[in-house]
Amino acid sequence: MKTTDLTLDLQAYVDGELDASRKADVERALQSDVEAQQLVAGLRELGRLVRENEPVHPLPVSKEFYWSQIQRRIETAERQQATAARPARSALHWLRWLVPALGVAAVAVVVSIQRPGGGALAGVDADESLTFHSDADGVTIHWIN
Q: Where are the domains of the chain?
């Protein structure tokens, strides 16, 4: 058996967490191993010291009152957080409509403005089509009504 496995088994033995067959194996190992006996004694002493010296913090009020105060503070914080989130939601609501509208406006501006030296409108047919050609970009666009 590995030392770490034995150490973990000894800790579980002291804590009363072993099943009956494993407990018997550990007790047999304890009879012949002095270091294991010392470790078990040290673990038991440590457990006793922790239990005896654990600080007790008495509450000045009853447990129910104490927990009701905590619950009330949590609810107040949640309400404040929900109230603070409302303006952000309304701003996002306007932004949700504003961004597509600005996109449409930008497309309209780009289509309606002729870039100096970049391209020229040619072949304008009164009812049917519009052609835009840009030598700088190497693009030709045909708009058909």
A: 3-53, 58-113, 117-145
Specify the pLDDT at position 114.
58
The pLDDT tens digits for 77-121 are 998 888 776 665 666 777 778 888 888 888 888 877 755 544 445
Residue 118, C-beta contacts closer than 8 angstroms, at least 6 positions apart: 134, 135, 136, 137
pLDDT band at 71 (very low <50, low <70, confident <90, very high): very high
Q: Six-digit token pair at 66?
A: 């104490």
Give the CA angle between residues 107, 119, 129 to the nearest 5°: 65
CA-to-CA separations, 43 to 3, 8, 52, 113, in angstroms, rounded: 16, 11, 14, 85
C-alpha span between 53 and 103 (Å, rounded): 69
For residues 115 and 133, the answer to whether their CB atoms sit within 8 Å is no
Contact 120, 133 (CB under 8 A): yes
Per-residue pLDDT band for 138 (boundaries 50, 70, 90) equals: confident
Give the three-class secondary structure for 136.
Answer: coil
